[in-house]
Amino acid sequence: MRTTITLSAEDYQALLGEQQRLAQQLRLVTVERDLFKQRIDALLHRLYAAKSEARANPAQRDLFLNEAEALAPQGAPIAEEVTPEAVEVAGHRRQKRGRKPLDPHLPREIVRHELPEAERICAHDGTRLVEIGADISEQLDIVPQQVRVIQHHRIKYACPCCDNSIRVTPPPARIIPKGLLTEAALAWVVTAKYQDGLPLYRQAALLSRFGGDLSRTTLAASMVRVGQAVQPIINLLRDHLLEADLILGDETVIQVLKESGRAAQSKSYLWAQMTGSGPPIRLFSYTPGRGGTHAQPLYDGIKLGAALMSDGYEVYNGIATARGLIHLGCWAHARRYFVEAEAVIPKASRGPEQLPTQFIAAMGELYAIEAKAKELSPEQRGQQRQQLCKPVLAKIEGLLLQHLHAVTPNSLLGKALHYLSSQWPKLIRFVDNGAWPIDNNLCENAIRPFVVGRRNWLFCDTVAGAHASANLYSLIETCKANDIEPYPYLVELFRQLPLAKTVEDFEALLPWHLANPTA
C-alpha cells in the first residue's frame, strides 16, 4: 500500500535545501576524516617506517622479484637452452681478493716463531737447516687506555748565605689554570663526547676501570672552561665564515635545564653555519629561541651580495632581505614533503601516475644531472645546468601550476605543493651559478653528529655548558671538514693557546694552519 504525501512548494524547497546542506556537510566531514587519516598514517610512518628517503626503482625491484616472468615473452613457450658461442674477452685488471692490509703507519711489534732445535735438521742428509726468510702475517692489537699521573716538580732555589733570596720556578701556562686534566686528557674527553657521542657519566665510568677516579661534575666543569678558553679561535672562524661568498644555514633543538626565567622543558636552539667557499668552516651557536632576534646577530658582518642557502624557515628570508643576500632554496626539503605525501598512499594504489611520484621522479632528474656534473668546474657545471636543468624545471613548474589549486591545501600533498610554490623563486636560482649547491644537505650532514650525540647526553645543564658545547662542536666539525684528525689537533691547540698573545698567534692555531699537529 503506497502512501502519498503532499508537500507545499515552500516545504519542498526547504527539503531540497536541507538535502543540499547535509550533502555539503557530508563532503566536509569526509574531507576532514581523510585529512585526519592521512595525518595518522604519516605519524605511523614516521614512527615505524625506514627513516631513509632513498627510494629503489620499482621497475628494477620487480625485475629481480619476477625475473623469469619479466624476461620471457607473454604466452611464449620456454625454449630449450642453447649453448652460447664462445666469445673472446679482452684482458682486464682484477682487484686482488683478500683482507684489506692494515695501515702501514701503525707501529709494528715483531713476534718470531722458530722451529725447535731438534727440528732444524735436514731429513735427507742430516745437514743443519739455515734461515732463509719468513712467512709474514699480521693481526691488529689494541692497547687499552692507560691512565697516568704527571707530577710537576717546580724546583725551589735559595741563597746558601742568607734567607732573603728564595725563588720558585713559575708554573707552565695551561689552558685551564690549576686544572686537574692535562691537555691530552682534555682533548680525549672532548673527542669522546663531541665526536663519538659518549656522555660524560659513561666516560667517568670508563676511566674508573683504569684507575682514573673522576666525577662527572669534574669532567663537565672542565668542558665548560675549555669551551670558554677556545673562544678566540671561534671568533676568528666566524670572521672567515662571514667573508665567504656562500654560507649554508640550519638549526636544531637543544634542551638546557637551567636557563634563567625558563622551564627546564623549554626549547632552545643550536644554529649551524658553514662555508660553501673558501676554507671549510662549521660553526655552531646556542640561542634561547628561534626567532629573528636570535638569528640576525649570527649574520652581522656578512659580505653584501653573498649567497645564503637554507630551508624555507621565514627567519632566513628576513636575514637575506635585510643584508642584501642571494637566497637559495633547498630542493631536498621540497622533495621531502612529496616523499611524505607519497608514503601515505596505499601500497596497492602506488604507481608512476600518482602526483607525488611524478614530482619525485622529476626532482630525481635534477639530482641525476647534478651527480654527473659533480666533478666539473663551476663554469662547466653552470653551462650544463642551463642546458639540462631548465627543461626539467619547466616540467616541474607545469605540474605545479596545473595541480596547485586542485588539491586540498591541508593535505600532505597540498602542503607539498604550496611549499614548492612559495619557495620556487629561490629553488630555481641554483642554475644561475655552477658554484651554488642544489640543496642544504651539506649543512644537515654537519649538524647530524650533534643530533646523534644529543640522543646520548640528552641535554645541557647550564647556558655556559651549551655555549661551550657549541664551541667544541665547531672545532670538531671544522677539523673533519678539513680532513684533520680532531684529537691531535686539539692536543696541540690546548698546548699552544695559552701562549698566544697576538692576532697572528691565534690565526696560526686555526685548523688548516695546524694541518699536521703532533699529539
Give an overview of the whole structure.
The chain has 519 residues and is an alpha/beta fold. Among the domains are: 155-328 and 442-519, no CATH class; 331-439. Helices cover 46% and strands 8% of the residues. It has helices spanning 9-48, 58-65, 67-71, 183-194, 200-208, 216-229, 231-242, 292-295, 314-322, 331-343, 355-372, 378-403, 412-427, 441-457, 463-481, 486-496, 503-507; strands at 156-158, 166-168, 246-254, 256-258, 268-275, 282-287, 307-309, 326-328, 460-462. The protein has a 5-stranded mixed beta sheet, with helices on both faces. A two-stranded antiparallel ribbon has the order 1-2. Strand 5 and strand 6 (282-287) form a beta hairpin. Helix 4 crosses helix 16 (486-496), helix 10 (331-343) runs antiparallel to helix 13 and helix 11 runs antiparallel to helix 12. The longest helix is centred in the N-terminal third of the chain and has 40 residues, at 9-48. The chain is extended. The termini are far apart. The relative contact order is 0.11. The model is unreliable at 58-81 (pLDDT under 50).
